[in-house]
From TrEMBL:
Name of the protein this chain belongs to: Prepilin signal peptidase PulO-like enzyme (Type II secretory pathway)
Domain of life: Bacteria
Key words of the record: Membrane, Transmembrane, Transmembrane helix
Residues spanning the membrane: 7-28, 34-51, 58-91, 115-132, 139-159
Organism the protein comes from: Streptococcus saliviloxodontae
Length: 161
């Protein structure tokens, strides 16, 4: 059973990369802004790090978020999520600080409603993964689920406009 999960995650990474390229090609045909494409690539890159080592490369986050923040203004929700990431880093919140930082990057482009949908979709996917994994893991890499939640929210946004 363990071999099946390892195979699933290797194919997940390959499929995520190829689907992100397809999404970006499709998005470029739909005149999307480059910030959403950058956010998708940031999520894909951070998913690789989170799945492999459960670490969060702060420099990569700073570069991508700085580029997005150059065009999109920093709002109060972004500042609240960065503050929660700092509290998480200090150990006051038992959630990975990378999750809050990725949500802070997403809040530059998404409305509060879209961000809440992204979190709900990611939570449902994470619970489903936790439920099917045998034996249950103590911690899971959550950024891949946030990435999939973001992709779903952006896809729904794209088809409804």
């Amino acid at each position: 059973m363990t071999l099946l999960y390892h195979y699933f995650f290797k194919t997940y990474l390959a499929e995520s990369f190829l689907s992100s390229l397809f999404i970006c090609f499709f998005i470029s045909q739909q005149s999307w802004e480059w910030g959403k494409i950058a956010l998708l690539f940031l999520g894909l890159l951070l998913s690789f790090f989170d799945l492999k080592t459960q670490t969060y490369p702060l420099l990569i986050w700073l570069i991508f978020t700085g580029l997005i923040a150059y065009v999109h203004p920093i709002n109060s929700l972004t500042l609240v999520l960065v503050a929660l990431a700092v509290l998480s880093y200090m150990g006051w919140i038992k959630i990975g600080e990378g999750d809050f930082l990725y949500l802070a990057s997403s809040s530059l482009l998404l409305s509060l409603n879209e961000l809440l949908w992204m979190i709900q979709i990611a939570s449902l996917l994470g619970l489903a993964y936790f439920w099917i994994s045998k034996p249950p893991k103590k911690t899971i890499a959550f950024i891949p689920f946030l990435y999939l939640g973001l992709a779903i929210v952006l896809f729904i946004d794209m088809i409804t406009k």
